[in-house]
Amino acid sequence: MVGAGRDGRISGSRARWCAWSAAALALIVGGCADTRGTPGGPGAAVDAGQSRGHYKIGKPYTIKGRTYYPAVDYDYAETGLASWYGPGFHGRPTANGEIFDQNEVTAAHKTLPLPSVVRVVNLDNGRSLIMRVNDRGPFVDGRIIDVSRRSAQLLGFEQKGIAPVRVEILEEESREEMRIAQGTAPRRDRAPATMVASAPPVERPVQPASPPPAALSAPAALSAPVSAVPVTVATLEPLPP
Predict the structure, then answer these.
(1) How far is CA 57 from CA 22, 60, 110, 188, 209, in A?
(2) What is the CA radius of gyration of the chain?
(3) Distance CA 106, CA 117 (A)
(4) CB-based burial label for 169 (10 Å; 0-12, 13-18, 19+)
(5) pTM higher than 0.85 for the full model?
(6) Cα 47 from Cα 164, distance rounded (Å)
(7) Does residue 35 come out as left (phi exceeding 0), alpha (psi in the -120 to 50 range) or beta?
(8) What is the pLDDT of residues 190-203, one digit of tens each?
(9) Phi, psi of 214 (to 5 degrees)
(10) Which of 121, 137, 129 is nearest to 191 (CA)?
């Protein structure tokens, strides 16, 4: 406890020490804050019941010297690297005000509307997963989507950390999510149903076995049925003495 002076006020040296300590604490807390939740803003942990999110496209924003331009693009399809995020962001607000849950099937994208629905295909193993995009990121060169920990488990790359993927937006599902977020359609308790599937094996037609070479060169007469040929047995006369 900080002591007080005889007049009941904190002494000058102790007051300066308290002010310095408070400033240092503020710097430490500010340095630990993460900006994923909202580009340029804090991502402090919040109560899961505080907000259910809203529809957001967003204005252009700059992260690490690069400017991104969010927009509605129902023709979006891209191939690149996927990564995943989880424990460090669990329970924090996403860029559209939802609460990030690493055990739900969701993802972060740099420019798609929030929320949107995309299909992600792991090109290493053929697994496919439909998920909601409700956050911004990843802000790493070469990476096009950041999925939740659960999504990475279902897509089969949690241990590896990254995977080559194909990402495409689903227009009808994304429009439905937009209406729900805007309040013009009934709100669901959970995200839309996800689908995990592996690419089917390539089916190749079975070719009939080729006949042996001898059969191909045999004369046609040999393949006709053979008729029985009568055999005459001659009786030998005894030799003269």
Answers:
(1) 38, 9, 10, 21, 61
(2) 37
(3) 9
(4) buried
(5) no
(6) 34
(7) alpha
(8) 545 455 665 544 34
(9) -60, -40
(10) 129
